[in-house]
Amino acid sequence: MERRRVLSLLMLIGIVGYFTVPNVANYVLQAGGANALLQKVTSMVSTSAMAAGGLATGGAAGVMQGGSNILQAGKQYSGRQA
What we know:
The protein is mainly α and about 80 residues long. The chain has helices at about 1-30, 35-80. α1 (about 1-30) crosses α2 (about 35-80). The protein is elongated. The model has no long low-confidence stretch (mean pLDDT about 75). It comes from Olivibacter jilunii.
């Protein structure tokens, strides 16, 4: 009996979702237009890509600067000038 109630509840959720999801999706697309949704997704992806590229570039520059600092410190410690 308990299983029948659970299955009935799942069936009811499925029926309600079948009719409401297209309406909600239609509302979202009409509110901003089809291109507005595409533009938002494109801008999110490009912003994420630029941020990831900036982090990678900044990290590489930091490693190179750190290596340069170590070499300069070694030269100054030994008394040699470059």
